[in-house]
Design brief:
This protein is of the alpha/beta class. It has a single domain, classed as TIM Barrel (Alpha-Beta Barrel). About 30% of the residues lie in helices and about 20% in strands. The protein has an eight-stranded mixed β-sheet. Helix 3 runs parallel beside helix 5 and helix 6 runs parallel beside helix 8. The longest helix is centred in the last third of the chain and has 15 residues. The two termini are about 30 Å apart. Bound molecules: iron/sulfur cluster (SF4).
Length: about 260
Amino acid sequence: MSALTSPSAAASPILLAEEPRICSSETGTRPLKVGGITPFTTTDYPGRLAAVVFVQGCPWRCGYCHNPHLQSRTEDGPLAWESVLALLRRRVGLIDAVVFSGGEPTIDPALPDAIREVRALGYGVGLHTAGMYPRRLEEVLPLVDWVGMDIKATRQGYDTVTQVAGSARAAWDSAALVLASGVAHEFRTTAHPALHAPADILALAQTLSAMGVRHYALQIFRSVGCLDGELNSVATTSYPGADLITHLSALFERFVLRRA
Ligand code: SF4
């Protein structure tokens, strides 16, 4: 079965790459580098039937990453962008939106053109981003209908999660850009007991609420796809506690707790 046409209804991507090589050069004219696609999902863009395009590449190394195969970029993406577009053309009328995810989609200079091509097919466009490229995010915000903004921790806790020094500034700048843009959003945090104490989650949520975030999701860590044995071995059953969830619910117009 072709990976491109696999009738997967799950949210996880179809991954085609072996351990990828680092790309030696990047140009603004080559097509989007796609590492996988989910042809149909009801969970990646709230309220919409969507396909998810997983863009290759991410400069961060979160221990809980569910898509570590997408962290590196190959010389050529495993899926040709033209093939992805052909699939999306065939699905017009069956789905109503396309979500660009990753990896980190804003890493790819071809993202704005790819979004325009998808919009030309009549689809709504969603974007999943962790916000490490604020200037590129600012460029694409006017082109998208909804943003899933991954906010990983308080400023103080950021580097522990991403394993990259200085990562907080870009992410929090991006968070402010999303809010200033007026684009519909969901901010979301993947929480793990070893990385996020309940008090840190509350502090993070209070900061987001004060900034103007209206929709927030707390996603309890799932081991699916995660390569970190230590993180995988920690139980999350009663984490982060009912009292905290009650507090979080009161901070946002819409709050969602997601568990596996
Ligand atoms: S930012 Fe996302 S894609 Fe990148 S390493 Fe972290 S979890 Fe994985």
